[in-house]
Amino acid sequence: MAVRGALAGPRVLLKRLREVMAEPVSAQERLDKIVVLIAANMVAEVCTVYVLRVDGSLELYATEGLSREAVHLTVLKPGEGLVGLVAAEAEPLNLPDAQTHPAFSYKPETGEEIYHSFLGVPVLRAGNTLGVLVVQNRAYRTYSEEEVEALQTTAMVLAEMIASGELTALAKPGAEPAARRAVNVQGLALAEGIGLGRVVLHEPRVLVKNFIADDVQRELTRLDQSVDTLRASIDVMLEEEGMARAGEHRDVLEAYRMFAHDRGWLHKLREAVMTGLTAEAAVERVQSDTRARMLRQTDPYLRERLHDLDDLANRLLRELVGLNDGQKREEVPENAIIVARNMSPAALLDFDRTRLRGLVLEEGAPTSHVAIVARALGVATVGQIANATGLVDPGDAIIVDGDAGDVHMRPPPDLEAAYAEKVRLRARRQAQYAALRDQPAISKDGERVNLLLNAGLLVDLPNIAETGAEGIGLFRTELQFLVASTLPRTGAQYRHYKAVLDAADGKPVTFRTLDVGGDKVLPYLRTVEEENPALGWRAVRFGLDRPGLLRSQLRALLRAAAGRDLRVMFPMVAAIDEFDRARALIERELTHLRRHGHALPDTIQIGTMIEVPSLLFALDEILERVDFLSVGSNDLIQFLFAADRGNQRVAGRFDPLSPPALRALKLVADAGKRHGKAIALCGEIASRPLEALALLAIGYRTLSLSPAAMGPVKAMVLALDIGAASRLLLPLLAATARRAPIRETLRVFAEQSGVPI
Ligand code: PEP
Ligand code: MG
Description:
Layout: H1 2-22, H2 27-41, E1 46-52, E2 58-64, E3 75-76, H3 81-89, E4 93-95, E5 117-125, E6 128-137, H4 145-163, E7 183-186, E8 188-191, E9 194-201, H5 216-241, H6 250-260, H7 263-274, H8 279-296, H9 300-321, E10 336-340, H10 345-350, E11 356-361, H11 369-377, E12 380-383, H12 388-391, E13 397-401, E14 406-409, H13 413-435, E15 450-455, H14 462-467, E16 472-476, H15 478-483, H16 490-504, E17 509-512, H17 539-545, H18 547-560, E18 565-570, H19 576-595, E19 603-610, H20 619-625, E20 628-631, H21 633-640, H22 648-651, H23 659-675, E21 678-681, H24 689-697, E22 702-705, H25 710-719, H26 722-733, H27 742-752
Parallel strand pairs: 9-10, 10-11, 11-12, 15-16, 15-22, 16-17, 17-18, 18-19, 19-20, 20-21, 21-22
Antiparallel strand pairs: 1-2, 1-6, 2-3, 4-5, 5-6, 7-14, 8-12, 9-13, 13-14
């Protein structure tokens, strides 16, 4: 009975707060009324609201009990005093004698020396601290758990008020509430480009509008029913998972199930409802606490679990407001910047590309599937932005700088203008490149250079026409597999390759067979955990051990190219016999198709990638067998220097424009000439003008590039005297050469001879 009595208080308070929120008074008056109400309801002598400002300090915005003169005058530095501690930790602080606490900071203008007990709670929204709400009493007392709970509930109402921007008018310039502040965060650049636009949340946070319960019992029933439905839906997902459900991993679902039955969590939700919140507001309150903890958790495993709990709360919220089935995707506005915790490649492809300007992810690694698709779509993307979805609201202005890895949320006008200028400049440059489109890539000294594109999805194909490329030098077939939710069968592969050849319209396409395994994990194929995936069971190794998969792909390719020219190459070949065995599979499929009367390609060219250094010492043998070679310099250089290409700490450590790398690359070009076989290079260095210049100087004439690089690289070729570049560079590669910095030497050469790089 005692508990019920104690909890009636906050419900009455919430009702009164609702009335105050609806009154047509000024923001200050509203705040003043709120603190009076809270103090009276909690039998506290003091109630004070501090608001977090853009500079990280906390300003006293309203008080009942302390000196009124202190309002807007008392400011605590970041982390200062008990209030600063509550804000920094995002946890309540409940003290019978505040003044003996080591963090206590005395502010004489407030007159707070006569109050001993102190209860401060963070004002939280989506895990972010917006301010601190404090009650104090003269007596030395510890506030009860119910009182702490009640004050936290009340803080939610304040969070909405602060987030609405209503208080900004009360602030001095430069000291505005942090809630709507400009936020600059640095993440990981995943796809180049710059996007300016408006936030669209991929999985919209359910915006709880109705905080205050009319009937607590009914809210408890709603909560219980939703939890039951949630549990049942997780069980169903777990059953489906047994049948290779894509995307959602069993571990995650197991974690969901565990949390959905966790008594502590359910108890917290029920308690929050008991203080007078609606069921959805209760979920949001508990979720906000979880998020605040998540942001401060450094242990990756525990962070991950808190993420799961956060996801579960989202599901529950959707359940409560009825968004779980058939949620209608809102019309995406023009200039949309998608903000998501993470997303599947298929979900990204669902958006209207013409309206998409950028993507911001809380997770995301350079090799993640969504990053690959974002690059293919040319959508500026930044990943690893902690709590990105909690820092913005739908419709907020936002800038994604996929070159530098920066995200600017609610940017000030001057920054927005500077970026808009950058985008205009880029567009102008693109227009200049477009003018080069139909011009053949012939160097100043008359050398013909073959510029091809790297591609992997159907959406890439229009790039051939847009850039004037001479074909596709690397078609990464694994992308179709990575974006699919189930294994594409031979028929689906056949249709895909045929569509690619149709779209290429007679221009050559070099298909690379499946390069999966390692970090390219297919969600629907169970593979083994490996200690060193980059050195593991991947690409052609996997293909040869699972010939069914490789044969089905080869059959699809042979059939798709019926009556046309087919070019196929194998990834990650490390030994000659791997190539022989892979080629034998093509022969076998050909025989099979011939026997069944299928039409066959007019010509078949078979090649291999040079990605493993062992082949550098077997070039003559491999060149006797292949029709062409293509250097995968991303992998070749990673293995040459033993530096993981996906590890930011080491990826940029060794320069491809250094003698060891250039000598290795030159070995391949020279061997190709000796054997009269075509040699291409399709790694990312071909897309960088200065590196491409060096490649031409050491003998390469065929480069396969990312679409965005076509303009800059062609402009470089047109202005370059390749002979002069060779005469400069080759002596620097000789063993006896004085150690000259090649990159700098080439840069100066380009500058002096007017070659744009
Ligand atoms: C490479 O390794 O250089 C390459 C082109 O292949 P991928 O980047 O797909 O590994
Ligand atoms: Mg590779």
